[in-house]
Design brief:
alpha+beta; 10 helices; about 35% strand; four-stranded parallel beta sheet; about 300 residues
């Protein structure tokens, strides 16, 4: 039997991680052919995925945070191949918040994450595709706007290293006194909304920004986006956001949020606004976001909350 061949695409920030090195050695000892490639600059992940496809690699594993996962997923998604003709996708979580991994139930221990890839068959999953300013962006997890986006963008890398996911909480609390709602118009099939919002989530996945569960019911294989809009709340913004940050996020959101489940969503604004796409800020007056069903295959726990139950 031919041993499986993987390509581990490792975020350069974690190149010296001993746990990753040991996990790679263990899997190689189990007859997995495992190539390791380290990203250094923009475009590396795409180049490594192209090399992996050319070698007939069975799977590519994103070793990093949500941004690394989306970068590798995008490198697969824009190929002119069907999902079953592409290498399957895996994730070894090494980020600050690991929002996708947390929601999906992927182990954070390096060896356990690689054993999941080895032992669990890949299933088709959807990806989020965003178009703005004539460019196309892909993401595995979530696009967010408003308060949560500013928290993520403004959180300093040094604070992330020191505090991990708590860094987003610290930054968020510091922003509570200077939150400005964003005016926008949104529409999708059978859905229209306009007004000022303080938080927006368009989810393939469920959470972003270090645990903000903006789309708590989202699954990644239903062909739909979960949209959550938190409208401007005059006189209650500070207390609402403090509760959102402190007490489980979606509990507060359920009381005030506008929700929809749509195959696509268009967002328009008179002034440019920023959406955070798994760590990548994209600024525009107009966005078209769609769910692309079954675009890649991914190794996930069989009982992952992000997967719809098998019929």
């Amino acid at each position: 039997m031919t041993p499986p061949r993987w390509c581990l695409i490792l975020n350069g920030k974690s190149a010296g991680d001993d746990a990753v090195r040991n996990a790679v050695d263990v899997m190689r000892g189990r007859d997995v052919v495992l190539d390791v490639r380290v990203t250094w600059e923009a475009g590396d992940a795409d180049r490594y995925v192209a090399e992996a496809i050319g070698r007939g690699t069975d799977g590519v594993i994103a070793a990093g945070g949500d941004g690394t996962l989306s970068e590798v997923a995008a490198a697969l998604a824009h190929r002119d191949k069907a999902a079953d003709a592409l290498p399957a996708l895996g994730l070894l979580p090494l980020g600050t918040a690991n929002d996708f991994a947390t929601a999906a139930g992927i182990p954070v221990e390096a060896l356990a994450a690689l054993e999941l890839v080895h032992g669990q068959a890949a299933r088709p999953i959807d990806l989020l595709r965003l178009q703005a300013n004539g460019a196309t962006h892909w993401a595995a997890n979530l696009a967010s706007g408003g308060f949560g986006t500013q928290v993520t963008v403004e959180t300093h890398d040094g604070l992330k290293k020191l505090l991990g996911g708590l860094a987003y909480l610290v930054t968020g609390m510091a922003r509570l006194g200077r939150i400005e709602p964003i005016d926008a118009r949104m529409r999708g099939p059978g859905f229209e909304w306009r007004g000022g919002f303080i938080a927006l989530g368009v989810g393939n996945g469920r959470q972003a920004g270090g645990g903000q569960a903006l789309c708590p019911e989202a699954v990644i294989d239903d062909g739909l986006l979960d949209v959550t809009i938190v409208p401007e709340l005059s006189g209650e913004i500070g207390s609402t956001l403090a509760t959102l940050l402190k007490d489980g996020r979606h509990v507060a959101l359920d009381q005030v949020a506008v929700r929809a489940r749509l195959p696509w969503l268009e967002i328009e604004a008179d002034a440019p606004l920023v959406l955070n796409l798994d760590g990548e800020p994209v600024e525009s007056n107009r966005f078209h976001i769609e769910c692309v069903p079954g675009r890649v295959r991914m190794h996930l726990p069989a009982d992952s909350p992000l997967l719809a139950p098998l019929a």
